[in-house]
Amino acid sequence: MRAGTIAAASAAFCCCTAALALPQIPAPALQYFPRIKAESIDTLAGAIHPAILASQIHQETCASKSKCWNPHAELKTKLEHGIGLGQFTITKRFNKFKELQQMDPFLASWDWVRDPYNPRYQLRGLAVADRACFRFARDAAGQEKTAMALACYNGGGGGVSGDRHACRAKPGCDPNRWWNNVETTSAKSRVAKPGYGKSFFDINREYVRNILRLRLAMYQAYNWDALPKPS
Q1: In order of start, what are the domains of the chain with their CATH numbers?
Q2: Could you tell me if 36 and 123 are in contact, meaning their C-beta atoms sit under 8 angstroms apart?
Q3: What pTM, to 2 d.p., does this model score?
Q4: E strands along the chain, which residues?
Q5: Which of 39, 44, 145, 222 has its CA 20 to 30 A from that of 229?
Q6: Distance between CA 169 and CA 204 in Å, rounded?
Q7: How far is it, in rounded angstroms, from Cα 43 to Cα 59?
Q8: Per-residue pLDDT tens for 86-99?
């Protein structure tokens, strides 16, 4: 589907969903809710509720009002360049767009060089990346598993595996539990990085905490069941 067609369909749907939204939900988010619900069901098989995906996008994009829920949102530092609703990262050694193309048949057709801001592909990419991260959360359950998958999305699967291994070796630490267990155990740098203002450890832990503890309630209160299946 072309980006223009997607935008037109989203605009038409927005007027119908406005009455269902809570006042504090950013207005630009509404047009993407039907697709978010579809990705939660189809791509993630219900493993992540659409409200969590919405909360994740909020965390990724809403550092400023102009970027909030904006597929053109970008973050550039000396180390990385993040793009879109999922802030897909390009560095000197890594390209998330290319990785996603290899992970999903639909994303294989994404011409990300010419069309990196396409929200349809961005939302699928977010769900596919989350799905891949669940393999680093094996043996965990419920929100503990989701928390580990989100930590993986933000900081990489190797980081989650290393943190769980370190937790397993620490007395009283349960590697299958995130909160107050793996959450507090990490080899990630705790020194603030230039351009970020925080350490990578703090960024990663704040990412999970903000999505599941700070922002989620707002999106959970939305009536997701009332949404029709997107075209």
Answers
A1: 3-224 (1.10.530.10)
A2: yes
A3: 0.87
A4: 74-76, 81-83, 88-90
A5: 145
A6: 21
A7: 21
A8: 999 999 999 999 99
